[in-house]
Write a structure and sequence with these properties.
This protein is an alpha/beta fold and 272 residues long. It has one domain (2-271): Divalent-metal-dependent TIM barrel enzymes (TIM Barrel), CATH 3.20.20.150. It is built from 10 helices and 8 strands. The chain is globular.
Length: 272
């Protein structure tokens, strides 16, 4: 088992998305490594970022794709898809250079979201092929939907592509009222066929699709029943990766590492 910290929890607009802060923060964190979140402003310097992370010896078992890829796929059409695939190729190259075996992707995103899901469904085949060429496992996240619910789309994807692998985000599931589906016989196939290969462990404090409350909270700051969640996951025999994404920086960019360390400790204790 590996407990990771999202770099997106550490660096954001208040500290200018300065990836050079990561080495200093790493020494204050009790996680086993990082899930590196790619930003759209970093494409021209991605090789320099890889060099920095490797020289700092920061382990990155998981990388999170830059999110506008999903938005371009959702819009569909030759131009948008060509752009999405071009950006995805760079993300694959970066993940491979970092030694990240898993690559999280938002297959749908933005204002278009899942309103054109046929495009997302078809595009996955090409994304999978590209990731395979780099020796990387692509993981589709249960991100928010405007039309349907993520778990319905997961089923559609798995029916079309039996090799599908997913990352389950507790916050996203709670937002859609789908957390209980994880435990239901209806979705037992997710475990029986080994589809879930990673977790984002975040809390949520709102109701069904309560958009103004869609914030990434630390464990215990919302209403997700993590005792039930971890007991279930432990019972499946899962011993893979978990990432904490809770926003840890304030308006001045100061990072609350103590809060993150408490989250890591809770996961270790719950999965022991």
């Amino acid at each position: 088992m590996k407990i990771l910290c999202s770099t997106g929890a550490l660096i954001g607009r208040p500290n200018n998305r300065n990836y050079r802060l990561l080495a200093g923060l790493a020494g204050k964190l009790s996680c086993d490594g990082f899930e590196f979140l790619m930003y759209d402003t970093w494409y021209e310097e991605w090789r320099e970022i890889v060099k920095y992370l490797k020289e700092a010896a920061l382990p990155v078992p998981v990388m999170h794709c830059e999110k506008q890829i999903g938005e371009a796929i959702s819009k569909g059409g030759p131009e948008n898809l060509a752009r999405a695939f071009g950006l995805f190729e760079i993300n694959c190259e970066m993940a491979a250079a970092l030694g990240a075996g898993k690559l999280v992707v938002h297959l749908w995103d933005g204002l278009t979201s899942d309103s054109n899901f046929g495009s997302n469904l078809e595009a996955y085949g090409e994304l999978h092929r590209m990731a395979q060429a780099h020796g990387i496992m692509i993981l589709v996240e249960n991100v928010v939907c405007n039309v349907e619910n993520p778990m319905k789309h997961w089923r559609q994807l798995a029916e079309e592509y039996p090799e599908m692998r997913f990352v389950f985000d507790t916050k996203m599931a709670a937002f859609h009222g789908e957390l209980e589906l994880l435990y239901s016989p209806e979705y037992a196939w997710l475990w029986q066929q080994g589809h879930i290969r990673h977790f984002h462990v975040n809390d949520y404090d709102g109701g069904y699709k309560e958009w103004e409350k869609l914030k990434t909270l630390p464990i215990g700051a919302g209403h997700v029943d993590f005792d039930k969640f971890f007991a279930f996951v432990r019972g499946t025999g899962y011993h893979g990766t978990f990432t904490v994404e809770a926003t840890a920086f304030d308006r001045m960019g100061v990072v609350n590492t103590d809060m993150l360390n408490r989250c890591f400790a809770k996961i270790r204790s719950a999965m022991a």
